[in-house]
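Lab channel / #folding
Pinned by the channel admin:
"Please post every new chain as: sequence first, then the structure tokens as a reply. Keep commentary short and put observations after the output so the thread stays searchable."

First post following the new format, from NK:
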Amino acid sequence: MTKPEKASHAILRKSLKMKIATNTPASFYSVTEHEFVLLGTAVEDVSMIVIMLEKGWGSSSIEKIEAITHWVSTYPPEVDCYIIGAETTIPSIKVSDYKHATRDVAVRQLCNEVLRRSRSIGVRGEITSRYLQDIIGCTED
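Reply from TO:
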């Protein structure tokens, strides 16, 4: 590679560097070219939001869910938001047996905020999918 080619690649890499807001900035590999900032900071100049959820959102997690929803809502609506690690600990496909009204409202509000910014919420498992569709009311559309 010639010197001008190396220089243009360096400029391109630098221009692709993103500032990413997340609730767990320490979870991301430190050698990345991107800058990870704590959710709620750098509101005016982030490229995207990445939320990492802990496993099993029980009733003890309602305040965390509400806090994440609040901080996501402080960013401009054109900033994409992605959820990583959404996994339920509901042990059965009969998700209606595991309703928790306050938690379910908080999860729906978080889903609404994410869907305001992104076209979909991806899920891996059938139980999580059933929960989001049957309990929370998110459709596949």
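NK: The longest strand covers residues 48-52.
TO: also worth noting, The chain is about 40% helix and 15% strand.
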